[in-house]
Amino acid sequence: MKQTFEVLNVKCGGCANTLKKSLQESFGEVAVDLESEPRTITLEVEEERMEELRRKLISLGYPMADEDLNSLEKFGATAKSFVSCAIGKMDKG
Q1: 61 with 77: CB under 8 angstroms?
Q2: Cα separation of 84 and 66, whole Å?
Q3: How far, in whole angstroms, is CA 69 from its chain's centroid?
Q4: Which of 10, 23, 69, 90 is packed most tightly, with the most Cβ within 10 A?
Q5: Cross-strand pairs, 4
Q6: Residues 1, 46: contact at Cβ < 8 Å?
Q7: How far apart are CA 28 and CA 65, in angstroms?
């Protein structure tokens, strides 16, 4: 089922590129809306795979807006997002 989720720390096309490339193999095509605030992603995901999606997003530094993260986890996610963004900017091809 196609669903849309609010995600944190997504700032630019580099972030969007990382999300698309990192999620494509497991979830297929991913649309990233850089116009909305908070940013959103839209993709096909079944309920039984939601935890997998959440873990993947956190590992990239882009947790869902409804995640209950403590201060250290939020800081870690923000730091990871900077690295993911830089990789996305370099890996456009």
Answers
A1: yes
A2: 21
A3: 15
A4: 10
A5: 42
A6: yes
A7: 21
Q: Is 84 helix (H, G, I), strand (E, B) or coil?
A: helix
3-state secondary structure of 79: helix
How confident is the model over 65-93, as pLDDT tens digits? Answer: 999 999 999 999 999 998 888 888 887 65
- Are 39 and 61 contacting, i.e. CB atoms less than 8 angstroms apart? no
Listed in sequence order, the residues at least 6 apart from 85 whose beta carbon sits closer than 8 Å to its beta carbon are 11, 12, 14, 15, 18
pLDDT at 29 over 80: yes
Number of domains in the chain: 1
Domain residue limits at 64: 2-90
pTM of the model: 0.90
State the residue for tokens 């850089």. Answer: 34
Pairing type for strands 40-44 and 2-6 reads antiparallel
